[in-house]
Automatic annotation (TrEMBL), chains A, B:
This is Phosphoglycerate dehydrogenase. Keywords: NAD, Oxidoreductase. Belongs to the D-isomer specific 2-hydroxyacid dehydrogenase family. InterPro entries: D-isomer_2_OHA_DH_cat_dom, D-isomer_DH_NAD-bd, NAD(P)-bd_dom_sf. The keyword NAD applies. Residues 103-277 form the D-isomer specific 2-hydroxyacid dehydrogenase NAD-binding domain. It comes from the Bacteria.
């Protein structure tokens, strides 16, 4: 009988392939597969839409290890029907995203973004610089998962007071207080900074909309590094145009790349970054820590030990 | 007899004037003085060159409380001759400058500066983004005073290893190791980030020159927020042009504002900020904490309790 296949939809260094073989000697490891081999794939590392049909038509697939944290673009209903295990890459990008957020805030508060623009025109322009202090600000993390917790640890040490929002308001270490997502509109009114780090689900779709923006402080900052469609883009444009709050920084968008005619581009009070917050040096090491631990658990107990996604809730 | 004068060369809020009167009831407080009154000024808060002659010609002046940390533009030799006490504003700007430096580093490492430039052209440009991780980097603080110590505390909590340089290499809390300034050229070769926070003295003039730049790592970053003339600008331009190291960020310059024809403006691997790192919200509160403490000590013991400058060494 043919050995079942571990299909790597992305190339990894030889050292990691060796470790996979050592943990799972009864499997073949492939980075390319023929149509016939598709039927023998039991474990897929990464996912792309073109494999929906070949990998899901034979009931052979047992486990998908996603590379990213977000898994909302995967065929979750079909995974559920076929009892396919799913784990994600949550945590890998936490440090990068946390550094991105702190950089965005200081770029705004310390006038660095404006300095970059002035420099392009060889303009000294000290009087064009808006400045403020990060320390002492109240920051609301909407989504208290791996990334939110990393951000909380880092930015708290810079003197920021960190509050959290999650589904039920359950307490999470490192947050001064946590609230239920139901109370979002109420809580934002006391915050200097609101950071969206939400997964894409039915419940989070367009959750950042005019109801929220209108309640924010006039000098508040909104950052989104979660899913693009958690933001109601049109209502955000209105809010920024009317200066309901002071400044937004988006790294994710409802449509990516952001179309060149989107009005967001030319608003004066926004920073647009091209989905870079998660770019991570030493990605393979960080990812393999998760995958190899899961692989060990899978071959010995047929279960996963890290980052399993609950298919019913979608994260 | 006329009461001696406390001359405020800058306006402060009424609440602080009241506190000055309460601590020093035998003094007049003035923010403008006539030529005749100049002879009665015993304490000057702030200094500007035009008062060199009127305030120093009568031997009445006893104490100058500088507003900034840097005092190299003041007539130190004359102060010394007349035994005039001098205290500076060191510490007021420490938090602002620390936030500035962290913002500059993350703006570079997380590709935010490039994103600002791309946004100006409505360009998504994810493939133009250089990214790296701040955590894990080795940072050398050249000048372990108030600002260096604040930076060390903040950035260490972001996972950065912090080393220090001071005159003698004496240990300072919060630094993994400290070295004598004599060893600067040797130490920079192991550092990812070199931050200059030096006062302007004869010893520090052009201390950051080609000898140093040539020894830096190819991917290293150099930041100067100390005095502009601690950097040999021409040699820095050569080093950046030849990519001796990767990136520089300057907030201070040998000539300010930086002349529009200075070649620094158009180098691709530099961030120029217009002497903004010390801009501080709530400045009056922070400054008055120093001045009022000193005033109390001065009127009771004729000495200063905070931030006294040693005129022989110039900081």
């Amino acid at each position: 009988m043919t050995k079942p296949i571990i299909f790597l939809q992305r190339a990894f260094r030889e050292e990691f392939i060796d470790k996979i073989h050592a943990i799972a000697p009864d499997y073949q490891v492939k980075t390319e597969i023929t149509p016939e081999e598709a039927a023998a794939v039991e474990i897929s590392v990464g996912w792309s839409e073109k494999f929906n049909e070949p990998l899901l038509s034979t009931n052979q697939l047992k486990w998908v290890q996603s590379i990213s944290a977000g898994i909302d673009s995967l065929p979750l209903a079909e995974f559920s029907t076929q009892n396919i295990l799913l784990s994600n890459g949550s945590g890998i990008h936490a440090l990068s995203i946390s550094e991105h957020i702190i950089g965005v805030l200081l770029g705004y508060y310390r006038g660095l973004n404006q300095s970059v623009k002035n420099q392009e025109q060889q303009l000294w322009g000290q009087n064009t610089i808006h400045y403020d202090q990060l320390a002492g600000k109240n920051l609301l993390v909407v989504g208290t998962g791996h990334i939110g917790q990393q951000l909380s640890r880092s930015i708290h040490s810079l003197g920021v007071n960190v509050y959290g929002i999650n589904t039920t308001g359950h307490p999470v270490e490192g947050f001064t207080e946590t609230y239920s997502i139901k109370n979002l509109a109420k809580i934002v009114s006391g915050m200097d900074i609101v950071v969206g780090i939400l997964p894409g689900t039915q419940e989070t779709y367009h959750i950042f909309n005019s109801d929220i923006f209108e309640k924010m402080k006039q000098d508040a900052v909104f950052i989104n590094v979660g899913r693009g469609d958690t933001v109601h883009t049109k209502e955000l444009i209105t809010a920024l145009t009317e200066k309901s709050f002071a400044f937004a920084a988006l790294d994710v968008f409802e449509e990516e790349p952001l179309p060149s005619d989107n009005p967001l581009w030319t608003l004066p009070n926004i920073l647009i970054t091209p989905h870079i917050s998660g770019l991570t040096v030493d990605f393979q090491n960080k990812f393999m820590q998760i995958f190899l631990a899961n692989l060990k658990a899978y071959v010995t107990t047929n279960a996963l030990s890290r980052n399993q996604v609950r298919l019913d809730r979608g994260y």
